[in-house]
Amino acid sequence: MADSDYESVLCVKPEVHVYRVPPRASNRGYRAAEWQLDQPSWSGRLRITSKGKMAFIKLEDKNSGELFAQAPVDQFPSIAVEGVTDSSRYFVIRVEDESGRRAFIGVGFVDRGDAFDFNVAIQDHFKWVKQQSELAKQAQNPDQGPKLDLGFKEGQTIKLNIANMKKKEGAAGNSKPRPAGPGGLSLLPPPPAGRSPALIPPPGEQLPSCPVDSQPTSAANTDASLPWPQPGGATTAASADIWGDFAKASGSASTQNPQSPGWVQF
After folding, report:
1. Whole-number Å distance between alpha carbons of 199 and 187
2. CA dihedral for 48, 51, 55, 56, sign (positive or negative)
3. 180: CB partners within 8 A, 6+ apart
4. Which of 76, 205, 222, 241 is 20 to 30 Å from the Cα of 146, by its Cα?
5. Cβ atoms of residues 106 and 92 within 8 Å
6. Which residues of the chain have pLDDT under 50?
7. pTM of the model
């Protein structure tokens, strides 16, 4: 059995009214206001079915399901189903009996949502018919379908932007790491040669005075035979107060022995 032999139900509405439609005098369209809306000719159930590419609007009895009229629809939009110009709840359909006689009747829904579903069900069916027809054509002639061209056109280029990939030249060679000391601290470079760092005494202490030999080497060698000077009172004063004023102690020593050989006053 082919697929076209199956009948599918597209939409069912439990309440619908049928009206007599007067002949249309011009091509301006149908108007529901011209019908006797308070006196419908028939009331029952509406069912939309499909069989192959055809759709069928069937008007049936609510209780027994007996067929009152049927409107075959082969395409949409067409004169088989038309909407009225003054309302969205009423349509004009073309019914057909077994002998081939045709007539136009008016169909109206109580609820506006039922009228919307009726219209959408017919539209969706014929959209599906159109898609199936296009797929069948593509299957028969696959070379005639549109091809996707991903190649570059003549003179066309492409530019890629990749972040964090460029490095400045020489940036790594210019930076010199400092030597790390204990605990990961960076140490300062040593002072230039020929200069000794100055010693800083602890808080509260003073460096002892050291004689500075300002004479040339020859003079130092000449005085080597002189007797070692005795500091005398300076030694006594320095030993009496070791934490005293260094300048005062030096001054007392220079006062007592102003002409001591081998010492330089400062």
Report:
1. 19
2. negative
3. 186, 187
4. 76
5. yes
6. 1, 169, 212, 214-226, 232-238, 240, 249, 252-256
7. 0.52
Residue indicated by tokens 């081998």: 262
Give the 3-state secondary structure of residue 161.
coil
Q: What is the spatial distance between Cα 58 and Cα 53, in angstroms, rounded to a whole number?
A: 16
Residue entry with tokens 């599918």 = 8
d(CA 97, CA 69): 7
**Rounded CA separation 70/57 (Å):** 6
Write down the pLDDT at residue 47: 94
> What is the rounded distance in angstroms from the CA atom of residue 266 to the CA atom of residue 257?
13
Instruction: Provide the Cα torsion 250, 253, 257, 262; round to 10°.
Output: -50
Residue whose structure tokens are 């102690």 = 249
Helix (H) or strand (E) holding 9: strand 8-20
How many CB atoms within 10 Å of residue 12?
A: 14
* pLDDT at position 218: 47
- Helix 246-256 to helix 233-240 angle (10° resolution) is 160
Tell me what pLDDT residue 16 has: 95
C-alpha of 202 from chain center: 63
Taking CB atoms within 8 Å and a gap of at least 24, the contacts of 72-76 are: 72/96, 73/122, 75/126, 76/122, 76/123, 76/125, 76/126
DSSP-derived secondary structure letter, 69: E
For 106-125, give the DSSP string.
EEE-SSHHHHHHHHHHHHHH
Q: Rounded distance, CA 52 to CA 104, Å? A: 24
